[in-house]
Structures are given as structure tokens and as C-alpha cells.
Amino acid sequence: MPNLENAFKTVCELVKDFKENESRYLSPQYQEAEVRRDYIDKFFEALGWDVYHRTQKNPYEQEVKVEKGVSVGKAQKRADYAFYIAPEFRQPKFFAEAKKPSRSLKNADDYFQTIRYGWNANTPVAVLTDFEEFHILDCRYKPKLNTVLENPNHKRYSYNDYSDHEKFKEIYYLFSRDDVAKNSLEKYSESFPKGKARGKTAFKSTIQAIDDDFLEYIDDVRETLAKAFKKNDSRLSSEELTEATQRTIDRIVFIRFLEDKLIEPEYYISEFGRKGNAWTEFISVCRKLDAKYNGIVFKKHFIDEQNFQGPEQSTFKKICDEMSYLNSPYDFNAIPVHILGSIYERFLGKVVNATAQRVKVEEKPEVRKAGGVYYTPKYIVDYIVENTVGKIIVGKTPAQISKLRFADIACGSGSFLIGVFETLLKYHSEYYQSHSEEAKKDGCINKDGQWILSIKQKQNILLNNIYGVDIDNQAVEVTQLSLALKMLEDETLANANEMQVLFHEKILPDLSKNIVCGNSLIGTDIIYEESTDGLFDRKRKITPEEERKLNPMDFEKRFPQVFCHSRESGKPENNGFDAIVGNPPWVFGGGTDISILEKDYFLNVLISAKGKVNLFAMFLEKACKLLKKMGFVSYIIPNTLLRVTSYKYIREYILKNNSIKEIIDLDTGVFKGVTMSTIIITLSTKTKTNEVLIKNGISGDAIIINQNQFIENNNIINIFSNTFDSTLTNKINSISILLGDLCKEMIFGVVISNNIEDVVFDEYAQDLKPFIEGRDIGRYMAPKRIRYLLYDKKLLHRARTPEVFEVSEKIMIQRITGGMRPLNATYDNNKFYNKESINNIILNDTVQYNVKFILGLINSKLFSWYYRINFTNESKLTVNLSKEYLSKLPIIKIDFENMNDTKHHTYIIQLVEQMLESKKLLQSAKTDKDKTYYENKCADLDNAIDSEVYKLYDLTPEEIKIVEGRQ
Predict the structure, then answer these.
(1) Are 645 and 885 in contact (CB under 8 A)?
(2) What local confidence, expressed as pLDDT, does residue 27 receive?
């Protein structure tokens, strides 16, 4: 393995040779191909890269991809070198572009070309070299010809610097294979100025990643194009404009992809409008490409009709000119397909809305309510796919794999299906390398001693194995486009031509039967007068408009190849998917967007529709029902599934009918701007194995829990407690009774409509009730603010009986809290009415427990620990305290005939009374001296109450450490 000194010695020899023959090497006759062979290849090999593929034979798993320097037609070359680190052979670490030494390297065209490779692939730096010089270029900024030379972060070495040990060391520790594997280039780029780059030169720019930049660009193109369509035909509807712009943009992107991948021998986009009508020429090329490629992108559409006028010509030509390889900064050979997917995922969140006077691109209502579109990061996709599809196919032959069915039933832009396709391609490639006879028999292509999958084989994998559903027709189109791009990612013009010559077939498969538009949750039984299975009893016939909006779909009818039956027995013989993966839609906005018709349907066919109607829970249940025996479901979803009361029905369903294979706690930060904690949950059809693997993050610590523990714990899936927590919880439960058994009432306050000013006032008037909200109280605190409620049941969205509020004493506890102390309660004997942000706890008249004693327990560290460990997600985020879980708080059994028990009971009451008084004095304190005094006193009383509670529950010093250590 090369090291610094060996590399330095080798490169010094190269420098010596170059210097001795410098005049020859600097002459125009010495070509780029020669300098690559004589010096640049050897330079990178000295840095530890397998440039000549001496050890890395598999073309799908080579850390250095070297272009042969051959152009097709007038096509632009790819980067001369692309460097990868196993196992990420799709994500380059950096590019290197080679030039012949006779020309000056520092020129705008070469800098633009080189930076363009790096920026499009999201690599921080790239190399431009002719061996005589070695330029390290900052690729974080969108390349612009007029400023590309001015970036102060570019760095230059001459070949004489290579023989300077200190200077060569700088290059070595940046670009040696081992150091690149340790993220040397990322660390190097982090030393550059963040955000806007400014130097002594005029260079001024703002860092923007390729996905954000291209999304902005195609958003602008969509609006411009929609207006151009509308200008030529004012009758076009919003839906027609949305489809027309989407299909046009998809075609332009796909054509650019074919051009940049060198799959097509000529450029099209740059020629549109040069000789005639740009739109007419565009449609003509699309018809030509449809005959060759097939697929949804070029499929005949209303925009292809002769009577369709197309967009205003000058605008369309301008769009084509900007998108052509001549002027565009975008390189579709370098942009990874999954990055295009992330762009399209957000692109799908908007539609074109048109009136007679104007055209505007706007977010879809459901996207606006959800706060945006969130694309699943690739590392999450890869993990889910590898641990479902990857595990299912291991050890199987291609023939066996051809019978497997994998799906995403809310596929969006197709990111998970791309991941499935990648995994299948990689497995097939590796399999055939060690099974030559099968490779030859199955139609693989032998290239440089390696077996390469043919286009026909890739077609078969897509058609046999991959299925998707989305209710959004745009998403279906984009998924098919993404899979087509993935299929052609490694193809060449020669392969494409060979496919047509040998098989007389179109290059892309028809995926219209695999990737379909429909409603995964609503079947066609919603349409008929009577349900065929008796599950759904509709009270009225749905209208055609309702049916069109619902887009109901039966999986059995749409995918007969997946849900087929034996002709002889009539019984299912291949019933269901082998794996369903994805990131299902998360919320319905509390169910407010669901029609009564939909809600009735869901309640009759899905157990998860009970309680709070939430899409992710229903998709999880539906996915489980679509699995064949021994199938897998793996989703990334909110971790509220695990414990929140609203999801108890889906938990019961899962635990009864499925085996949980794995739960990964991802916490927050997976999705930019989303604070909700997430999990990856993987289920299989029911097996005898009850072991659940629980992991803290994808690569974090892991423990195994028996699934029966969740069932025994009232179907709460508690993954956050460890063995010590569980032991202590069991000990506490064994000496306690439930708080709910002591209560006459446990209910949150009134729910007010949006017009709160109609019923809540700042000043008191006759018949108004003193009124507070959750934010007005705290632990042992009197209300900070009191307003007044007009208690009129007709004006309130949800009223409560006055007895809830006008009891002689009650505990009020904040319903929405957060942090490590989620329980914040206070005492009320002033008959405060309150909002739903407060839970009211009223003890039975017959119990001997004192309200203030219960208040002390609730506010103790022990109870916050207990609630958090058993009923929350253990995060520091918002917690919604539910009646169901509050009622399960463990109240120590007190024998009121026992003097020692009553002594503890009385002492805690006294401490709580002192605390309530001290909090009042703290709230009214004016001077810093008084504030400090009462703060200290409250802290001392808090500690005293905690100590007494520990004694009551007989906690050992070690158990106290468990509680205190988790605060």
C-alpha cells in the first residue's frame, strides 16, 4: 500500500523525467491522451488509486472511472477521471479533468467545464491538471463563465512543487485514496468561507447546491412555460397547463440526459428553432424518440396533437437555448439520479393555477398544510431497501428473483423504487461475475472480461420486480421517468443501437402496468351500490366528480400478476408483495381534510382509522395487508406511532398480526425543517420469532426486546427504556395503584372556536368566568394571567359541565409540554375555567388521598421520569399529555391506618403547601434579593419533595441515580 514517502519518491521520478524532456511535452504536438498515459495516470496511481483496475475488475465497483477520451459526434466529453470510495460507487468524491500541457490551464472555458462536473455531482472540489500544473478548484458555487476564474479559493501547484516535500504533502493528504476515504476533501472545503464568497477580486457568489438551484430554475421555467402556453391558448385549464408544462419539462430533461450520457449521437435541444419553429421541431424529435425509447415521457399526449398550438415561440426557444449544453451549467451525466429525484419530489408539490387573466404556480393545498415536501435522504432509502429487498434476494438466482415483487404504494418521485432497482442491478451484476455460464445464457454482455447486464435484462428486472402507486398522476410520470433514467445510467449509444437491431424493440419498457395512478387506501367498493364484501355500507351513491377525486383502486385488479389465483383451485397462488418500502404521507391535518364519505369508508375497512385519522398509520396497515407470507414492510414514519394514544388501534393490529423485526430511533434532523422525531419500523408477516432489534440510529447501539413485552405493556411500544428502567418501573407498579382509579374526573378544558375574542375578554363583567390557558400556569404556580370566559355552550366548540371547573379543589396540569420534566401541575381552589391546553384532575370524594399529596407526586422528578420513560418518545420536543397515560401514573399505596404511612403523606402535603406559598411570593417579588431568596427556597423545597417521594417508593441510591441521571 503506498504511503507518503513512496508516493513522493515515485512522483519525483515523474518530475525529473518531465523536466528533462520539457520542450517536447510543452509542444502542441504532445496530446492530452499522451500526458494522461505518461504522467497523470501514474501520478494518481502513486496516490493509491487503482487507475489501471489491476484489482477492481467489476465495472460496477471501480473506484476510478477513466474516460477513454473518445467523443461521439460533436458530443461533449465526460470528466476524464471520476474518483469514488467503496461501497459508494454512485457518488463521486472528486473529478479530475486533464488537458495537454502546451495550453494555459487558467482559462474560463476549462475552469467552467471542470467546476461544472463537481458542482453538478455535489463534490466540494475538482482537479484540473496537465501534470505541468495541478489546479484545485472550488466547486461549491454555480459555475459562471464571466466569474469562474475569480474565486479566491482556487489553488494552483506547478510540477516543480511536486518535488518539494512540504508542498507535495499538501496534495497527498488531500487526494491520496486513503485520505479521501477519511473525508479529507470535505474537511478542506469546510475551511473555505461560508455563504457568500468575497475576495480581493470581483468574485461574489452564494453557495447553492445543485438540487436547490435546479429546482429554482425549473420552477421558473414551469411558470414561464405555463404563461407561454396560456398566451397561445387562453382556453387551457389549470389541470391542462399543469400536465402540459410537466410533460414538456420532463421531455427536455430526458433529452438532455440522453445527450450528456452520450446515448444519443447528436444534440437536439440546442438546434430547436434554428431553422424553423422551435415547438414543431421539438414535437417532431419527441415522436422520433418515442419510436426508439418508449415510456411515459414521449408517449403521445395532447401536446403532440396538431391542433395544440403549443407555447409562444420566442419564449420556448429561449427556454431551449438556456437548457442546451451550450449555455446550461447543468450536466446530466454528473447529476446523480437520486438528486434529480429529490428535485422532482419538491417540484411535484406545486401545480399551475390559471384564470382568464393570469397564470400562477402555487403549492398544492395538502403540501401547504404539511409545511412543504420532504424528500427522504438517500442513506435512509438505502438502509430500508438493503434490509428488506437486500435480505430477501440474498442467495437467490436471477430466475428465482424474477418471481419476487417489490412495491412502494405511495411512491412520490420514486426514490425508494430507484433504490430497489439499484439493489437488484448490483446483485445481478455480482451474481453473474461468478456464474459465467448463466451470464452467457441469460444474455449478459462480456466487456473487458466482465459480464455486463444488457438493456433487455434491465427491462425484465423493472417489469418483473418493481411496482408503484401514487394518487398524483404527476408523481407516477416522474417515477417512470426516474426509473428510465436509472436504467439508462450506464448505457452507451452502442448498447442502445444493439438493443434495437437485435430485438427490434424499444429501449425502455412500458411501465404503465407497474407504476400506476390510484388511491392505495380506497378500493372500488366505494363506488358500488352495495359492498361486495359487506365491509362498507354507503348511504348514498357517490357522484362522478367525487369518484374522479377519490381515484379508487383495487390492487387485485390493477396488479393481477401480483395477486393472481390458480385456475384449478381458484385460490391465491402468488398473493401479495414480497416487500413494501417507503415514506408514506404522514398527516391529514388532524383529519380535517377528509370528507364524511372517506371517513366512513376508512372506519369500516381500516382499524387504524379509529382515533385520530392519520395517513401514515393507514398506509402501514394497508401495506401489511398487501404482503404475501414472509413478506416485509419497512417505513420511515413519526415515532408517535409507538406510544401516543391516538395510534393504539394500529399498534394492537401490528402486535397481533405482525412480527416487528426492527425499530430504529432516528430522533430529529432527518428531514430539513421537521422537528418531529422519526423511526424506521420494519415488520414481517407473523412469525414465531418475537425478538425485536432496537437501534439508536442506523449505526448506533442495539438491544433486543421481546415483542410480548409490548403486548403486556398495554400495546405501548416502549423502545426508549433499558433493562434498569424496566426493572424500576415494575418495582414502582408493584406497590402502586393507578391515578385513574382515584379520580372522579380527568378531562381537558373547553375548546374554543377560532373566534376566541367572541368569548374571552380581558376585563371582568357580570356572568363571566375566570379563565386561564396552559401557558398561564407552571409547576406549583398561580396563574400569570387571568382573563374571563363567556360560558355559553352555543358559542363554544366543545364545552364542559361547570362542575369540572367549580369544584372546591383540583389539580391543573399543562397538557402541551416538553423537555425532560413533562409534568407541570398546580393547585386550584379558585374555580378557574380553562382551555383545552389544561388537563383537570379531580379526585373522588371517597378517597383519603389529599389533592396536594397527589400534586407533589405529579411534580416530582420520579413522576416526570416515569411518564417520559413509559409514555413519551424520550425526546426534548413537545409532549401532549393524554388522559389515558396520566391515568396510569402510579400512586403509592397508602395504608391510612399505618402511622408511618400517614406521616409521609402529611409531610409531603406540608412541603407542597410551603411550595405553593413560596411560588406566590416569588411571582410577586420585586427586588433581586427577594427573587434570589425565593428561587433558592423553591429549589430546596423541590429537592425535599423529591427526597420524600424517593423514600415513599423505597428507591435505592442506585435507582435514584437512574432517575436523576435521565433528567
Answers:
(1) yes
(2) 94
Place of cell 414521449: 298
Rounded to whole angstroms, the Cα distance separating 582 from 467 reads 12
User: Bridge partners of 768?
Assistant: 790
Cα 715 from chain centre: 27
CATH topology of domain 726-965: Adenine-n6-DNA-methyltransferase TaqI; Chain A, domain 2 (3.90.220)
> Which helix (H) or strand (E) covers residue 468, if one does?
strand 466-470
pLDDT tens per residue, range 265-276: 889 999 999 888
Separation CA 945–CA 960 (nearest Å): 14
Report the distance separating Cα 916 and Cα 463, nearest Å. 70
SS3 129: strand
Rounded to whole angstroms, how far apart are CA atoms 806 and 842?
11
Q: Write the CA distances from 490 to 258, 334, 386, 486, integer angstroms.
A: 11, 12, 21, 8
Phi, psi of 437, rounded to the nearest 5 degrees: -65, -45
Is the Cβ–Cβ distance between 294 and 506 less than 8 Å? Answer: yes
Q: What is the 3-state secondary structure (H, E, C) of 687-755?
A: CCCCEEEEEECCCCCEEEEEHHHHHHCCCCCCCCCCHHHHHHHHHHHHCEEEHHHHEEEEEECEEECCC
Cis ω before 584 (30° cut-off from 0): no
Grid cell, residue 508, equals 425502455
* Spatial separation of the C-alpha atoms in residues 421 and 488, rounded to whole Å: 12
Phi first, then psi: give them for residue 136, nearest 5 degrees.
-100, 120
- For CA atoms 922, 927, 930, 934, the dihedral sign is positive
Q: How large a percentage of the chain has pLDDT more than 70?
A: 90
pLDDT (tens digit per residue) in 448-506: 778 989 999 999 999 999 999 999 888 898 899 889 888 888 777 666 666 555 445 68
Q: Can you give the pTM of this predicted structure?
A: 0.75
Please state which of the ranges 48-57, 183-192, 712-721, 817-826 shows the lowest mean pLDDT: 712-721
- The residues near 212 (Cβ < 8 Å, ≥ 6 apart) are none
Query: What does 556-617 look like in DSSP terms, one character per residue?
Result: HHH-TTTS-B-TTT-SBSS-SEEEEEE------TTTTT--HHHHHHHHHH-GGGSSS--HHH
Phi, psi of 734 (to 5 degrees): -70, -20
* Structural domain spans, the chain: 4-206, 210-370, 726-965
pLDDT band at 878; cut points 50, 70, 90: low
Q: Which of 896, 891, 810 is nearest to 845 (CA)?
A: 810
Helix, strand, coil percentages (3-state) for the chain, rounded to 5, are: 45, 15, 40
The CATH class for the domain spanning 4-206 reads alpha beta
Q: Which residues pair with 628 in a beta bridge?
A: none
SS3 797: strand
Contact predicate 607/594, CB 8 Å: no
What's at 656, amino acid-wise? Answer: K
